[in-house]
Amino acid sequence: MVDFRPRSVALGTALLGAVSLLTAVVLLTTIPENPPGTGFAAGLTGIFVLLYAVVGLLALVEAGVLGLVTRLWEPAEWPRRLLMGGAAAGGLAVVLLVGPLLVSRLAATLFGRLVPVGNALEIGLVLLPVGIGSTALGLALHLVEHVRTRART
């Protein structure tokens, strides 16, 4: 079984969060000031900009919580697993949400046409609350154990 270190998971998730934020900035620059027609496409792009920005920020927060808790304290096994699972889910959500867009843009640049990306967007959206819940539960369990340990001494 592969044993991942919390610092490696936090670093990977933070990098993916930064990629998501960078993608949001790049997409933001593609929205025209005066869109042609009804502006539906510009509005849809704006929704994706917000989605990528929120996902990137959440991934950075999950990575930060994992890094901070494991650096300041030594969490027990289950809180550590939950924190790592939350950060990993956040990183995977970024991969599933931003990855298809980047692959589609790359294919459009190389081949001159868009490539369908499948259900990655829906799976990525499902992983968002999983990551948030796992991180919150891991942090709560760690804080409860920390308070209980301090009360015993």
How would you describe this protein?
- Keywords: Membrane, Transmembrane, Transmembrane helix.
- The chain crosses the membrane at residues 40-61, 82-103, 123-144.
- This protein is mainly α.
- The chain has 4 helices and no strands.
- The chain has helices spanning 6-29, 40-72, 77-111, 120-152.
- The protein has one domain (6-152).
- The two termini are 36 Å apart.
Blueprint (SSEs and pairs):
Layout (H helix, E strand, L loop, with lengths): L5 H24 L10 H33 L4 H35 L8 H33 L1
Keywords: Membrane, Transmembrane, Transmembrane helix
Briefly characterize the structure.
With 153 residues, this protein is mainly α.
Global outline: elongated
Any idea how many domains? 1
String of helices and strands: HHHH
Q: Report the radius of gyration as a whole number of Å.
A: 19 Å
N-to-C span: 36 Å
Mean pLDDT: 88
Low-confidence stretches: none
Beta-strand residue percentage: under 5%
How would you characterize the largest beta sheet? none
Number of helices: 4
Oligomeric state of the chains present here:
single chain
Count of distinct strands: 0
Structural class: mainly alpha
Q: Could you estimate the helical fraction of the residues in percent?
A: over 70%
Keywords: Membrane, Transmembrane, Transmembrane helix
Transmembrane segments: 40-61, 82-103, 123-144
